[in-house]
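Recall that a protein's primary structure is simply its ordered list of amino acids. Everything else, from secondary elements to tertiary packing, is in principle encoded there. The following example makes that idea concrete.
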Amino acid sequence: MTGAGAEEVRCMLMRGGTSKGAYFLAGDLPAEPAPRDDLLLRVMGSPDPRQIDGLGGAHPLTSKVAVVSASADPEADVDYLFLQVGVDTPEVSDRQNCGNLLAAVGPFAVERGLVAAGDGRTSVRIRMLNTGDLAVASFPTPEGRVDYTGSAEISGVPGAAAPVVIEFPQGGSPLLPTGRARDLVADVPVTCVDNGMPTVLIAASSLGVTGYETPTDLEADQALAERLREIRLEAGKLMGLGDVEGTTVPKLSLLAPPLDGGAVMTRTFIPVRCHTSIGVLGAASVAAGLRIEGGVGRAVARLPAGGDRVRIEHPTGFLDIETTLAYDTPDAEPGAEPGAASSVASGAAPSPVPVARRTAVVRTARKIFDGTVFPRPAGAVQHP
């Protein structure tokens, strides 16, 4: 404690992929969501468009939190809870994962002693509490210490760092949440896909834009913003997410033909701001969606002739994703809902369902500071 009544919390600020966030051990935060979220708002300096009185960087990509703890799951070493902290709103959301902050969870777990480092390289099995999905992150640990230096470069981050290889096994959620490769949402053809991040794929041309505009120009287009909002609200219900008015999922990715040798150009909304690059899990969903027969991406993308790697172009470069799809024939279930893969009532054989067997990506991470954060005093700002 410093001064009468002052709070202090152990915290590590880290860059994970193209995002930046505050990393905490779960035991260093209140256990109950309400006091925890109030504390994190004060740590980040929200609500305030500049976040001038906290750690936040005045953008959703730099107003993020990772909460990490040892896992009771025998298939995982640590649990990772992602929290998106509102910038100018007093909101803390756990409705989605963050694949960018995920890149630094393994190194953080080693730094905090949750996982013992190997001599040379360490793999950390991570359970993402937001969805229950699993991931394995591997990174260099020479002489039993995390080494953040290296030659791996990723678009959107200056310089180079050590590679963090993240593999995602097959998830439990359906790749096509609506059961269809294509839906008509608000009179616009879309593909709703979830390969770790609920995402709506839309051909940019179907909304009267090229898909090559800058994020700033797209954000300034009020007519586009209203159309995207309409699509997102309707798609959220179709995807089983309910009313998504106050959430950040599903993401919306506008697709256009590639400009620089990739498979597709993207502009992704999160959900109102246009991403200056693309999130890891969002890119994983785009990559899988491009391979789905009948999806809107097949008419836009230029998929490679062989191999699993797909290069997703974005406003500041590209992200390479390796995705392997297979088509499974599900067991028929009596009483299946309309639109489901099974159709026993008609006597037809169930249609093959696309499944993402494997997804992998190379990211980088870096420890920026490790120490103590002093939150803004409680009650200093009246939340609207």
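Residues 1-5, 332-346 have pLDDT under 50 and may be disordered. The longest strand covers residues 353-373.
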